């Protein structure tokens, strides 16, 4: 059994053995090289590590994992390090080794007949999308961090994003996996089968496990026909109910065409107008609520623009839509999407904010936004609720911005009160406290309350079976 006592430093000889195995490109130890790997995107955590391992391929990773495992050294998988919950950051002990998958960045195969792509874990999501497009197909997963987030990261968090409403979460876009287990064994499950009922679906265990069960090194991804007709509308809507009513109009007319349907508050759009260059308000007058309706179809004659005009006209007559703009070009469509995508960055620049990535049944979203906003304003007078996100999935980022002028640290000290305030409403509605970002380090203390009893117990048994020494991403997911 390896020595896993918290007090033990990096075992002598391990760094030399890793250096001999991985070469200078595969092992970073200089402080300036470690720096980008130590903190998370939100700057919630800052850890320490003796080194960053950057293997060139699966076999090298497996050999490095064997070395670390036999030395009892904990390992933290890291992809693009865009986690919203501190999932890829080492702790402060200085014992946890960061394992970056960045050099496993090959697209091994693309098959437009099977509609599959075999991509390594370090392939950046945007690169996977581009590779699919080059082969005349679509890899539909899309999120604000797609220029940095990796295939290994999106699968390990079962990321959602903007197109879940049409194509599902990352899990639904994955057919097979290759994994390096915590003891260094390689499991080759890179099957590209649509049907494969052969015992436990291990691939689904590693998806969403946030690096606590092993390293995803490659995946078979599912592609779709590329869109040949698109339409995009940015709408000012009367209220939260009108946003949902508009979603239903589009969904009920042609569910398969609704690629994304995103809600934004007036406050969030105001922040984007203030802080992000190149953003202008596309509609005539400011509103308290907006939605972005993104339509796409593989049929060139789908007539999506006509459909959008007709449904928006009906919605205006019904008083749901106050004003709307349809993109006239791809460039304008991108500009409209930018307003939505820059919400996290604009919130960051406005000051301190606390995020609550929650979901409720779609029908309850308007009530949830209203109740949470009212409760949050009461909890911290002057604070500014900034709800936005994936209304079609019932997943709203029920975020709260600090009151202007308040000390950011004093506001952040209330983080848990703020999240509890939102979660209390969400719980009453049979929702979830973690819709798409995962648990990471941030939400481990919520697990017993929300997923306690048989559920957490079963998760622990699975964890112990696969990682008996607790070396994989310790301090994440489990309290
Ligand atoms: P990392 O942050 O590096 O890691 C995430 C977790 O996965 C960690 O626990 C890590 O240990 C583990 N991990 C990473 N790679 C592997 C691997 N190969 N094997 C095993 N474990 C691994 N998320 C959404 O779901 N929807 C959104 O719309 C969305 N928008 C975002 C917008 C912005 C601006 C930002 C900064 C983040 C956003 N996120 C979103 C969160 C984040 O991008 C996702 O969680 C993404 O899936 C993380 O990918 P990554 O490669 O950066 O993973
Ligand atoms: C998004 O939908 C991401 O843009 C980030 O999930 C959400 O910043 C957030 O709270
Ligand atoms: Zn989101």
UniProtKB/TrEMBL annotation:
The keyword Ubl conjugation does not apply. Keywords: FAD, Flavoprotein. Pfam families: FAD-oxidase_C (PF02913), FAD_binding_4 (PF01565). The keyword S-adenosyl-L-methionine does not apply. Coiled coil: none annotated. Residues 45-226 form the FAD-binding PCMH-type domain. PROSITE patterns: FAD_PCMH. InterPro entries: FAD-bd_oxidored_4_C, FAD-bd_PCMH, FAD-oxidored/transferase_4, Oxid_FAD_bind_N. It comes from the Bacteria. This is FAD-binding oxidoreductase. It comes from Falsiroseomonas oleicola.
């Amino acid at each position: 059994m390896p020595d896993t006592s918290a007090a033990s430093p990096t075992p002598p000889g391990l760094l030399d053995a890793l250096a001999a195995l991985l070469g200078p490109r595969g092992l970073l130890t200089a402080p300036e090289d470690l720096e980008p790997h130590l903190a998370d995107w939100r700057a919630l955590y800052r850890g320490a590590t003796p080194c960053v391992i950057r293997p060139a391929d699966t076999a090298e990773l497996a050999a490095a994992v064997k070395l670390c495992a036999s030395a009892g050294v904990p390992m933290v998988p890291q992809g693009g390090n865009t986690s919203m919950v501190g999932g890829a950051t080492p702790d402060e002990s200085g014992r946890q080794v960061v394992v970056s998958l960045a050099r496993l960045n090959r697209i091994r195969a693309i098959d437009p007949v099977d509609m599959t792509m075999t991509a390594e874990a370090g392939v950046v999501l945007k690169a996977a999308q581009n590779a699919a497009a080059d082969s005349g197909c679509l890899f539909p997963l899309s999120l604000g961090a797609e220029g940095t987030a990796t295939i290994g990261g999106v699968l390990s968090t079962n990321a959602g994003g903007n197109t879940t409403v049409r194509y599902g979460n990352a899990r639904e876009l994955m057919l097979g996996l290759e994994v390096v287990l915590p003891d260094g064994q390689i499991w080759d499950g890179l099957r590209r089968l649509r049907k494969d009922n052969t015992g436990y679906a291990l691939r689904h265990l590693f998806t969403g496990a946030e690096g606590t069960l092993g390293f995803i090194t490659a995946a078979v991804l599912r592609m779709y026909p590329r869109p040949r007709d698109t339409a995009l509308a940015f709408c000012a809507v009367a209220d939260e109910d009108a946003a949902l009513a508009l979603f239903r109009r589009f969904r009920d007319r042609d569910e398969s065409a609704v690629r994304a349907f995103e809600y934004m508050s007036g406050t969030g759009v105001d922040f984007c107008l203030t802080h992000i260059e190149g953003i202008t308000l596309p509609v005539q007058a400011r509103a308290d609520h907006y939605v972005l309706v993104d339509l796409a179809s593989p049929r060139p004659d789908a007539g999506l623009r006509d459909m959008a005009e007709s449904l928006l006209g009906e919605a205006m007559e019904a008083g749901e839509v106050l004003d709307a703009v349809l993109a006239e070009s791809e460039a304008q469509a991108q500009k409209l999407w930018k307003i939505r995508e820059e919400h996290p960055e604009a919130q960051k620049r406005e000051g301190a904010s606390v995020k609550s990535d929650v979901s409720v049944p779609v029908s309850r979203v308007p009530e949830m936004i209203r109740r949470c906003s009212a409760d949050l304003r009461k909890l911290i007078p002057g604070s500014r609720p900034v709800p936005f996100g994936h209304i079609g999935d019932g997943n709203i980022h029920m975020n709260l911005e600090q009151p202007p002028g308040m000390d950011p640290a004093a506001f952040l000290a209330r983080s848990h009160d703020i999240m509890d305030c939102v979660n209390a409403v969400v719980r009453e509605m049979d929702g979830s406290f973690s819709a798409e970002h995962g648990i990471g380090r941030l939400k481990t203390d919520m697990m017993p309350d929300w997923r306690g009893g048989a559920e957490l117990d079963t998760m622990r048994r699975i964890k112990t079976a696969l990682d008996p020494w607790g070396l994989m991403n310790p301090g994440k997911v489990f309290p």
